[in-house]
Amino acid sequence: MEALLAKALSGEGFFAFPGVLLVRGPDAFSFLQGQCTRDLRRLSGPMGALFLNHKGQIEEAATLFPHAEGYLLAPWGSLEGLSQRLKRYIVFDQVELLALPLYRLVHADGREAIGESAEGAWPLALYPLYTLFKGLPLLSDIRGELPQSVGLLSLVDYGKGCYVGQEIMARTEGKAVPYRLVGLRALASGEAPAELSWAGKRVGELKRLEATPFGPLGLGVVRQEVPFGAEVEGGGGRYRLVPLPFEEATWSGQRSSG
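The structure corresponding to this sequence follows.
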């Protein structure tokens, strides 16, 4: 598995996630435009999008693709979770949600596509480690957070008009946010998720912790005033804050000699 991880970190190969949602019908454009953070008028190829609640917090996320009948949504989480999130807001809209037996193909070099098969893909068990080293959060890492607190403000198109959570995004536009996504290097490993404290004060949350060839590494959302290099505690563990991506993202496949 370590050899495959090294290849993925070098930009080789792809991951395949089953289940893609087709959104179609006369109101497909207006419905999705009122749900996600991206302006569908700019959609010409794969585009990441967030689905927020009324507090501006992330509920779901997906990669959007144009389609002859409407739009394809490749979920970052589960197909069921994304479908249920959208169904909650369908009232009088003439829109249909159709699950298709297609795959979200995430290439290790950053490209995304839709495919009909997972043949040749890296094992999905490798994906959490790959994203961890690269500093790319999973949906479970960012759910319940504001986009700007987890480095995903690029997935918010300001000025596109009304959508769920837009009022909060407008209020916070251009303002500094108190939290940021950071890497956590375990000095003494604990459990995740867990609240993190620094100097006796709650400063954030350990979102994910993974066993790696370099010891336990994690992702957390921590207050801006906590500097890189600081040691935080939580969940029975102790961690040092480091910037993302982890320096091990350039790993060649050889174990550290340290």
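The CA atoms of residues 49 and 62 lie 6 Å apart.
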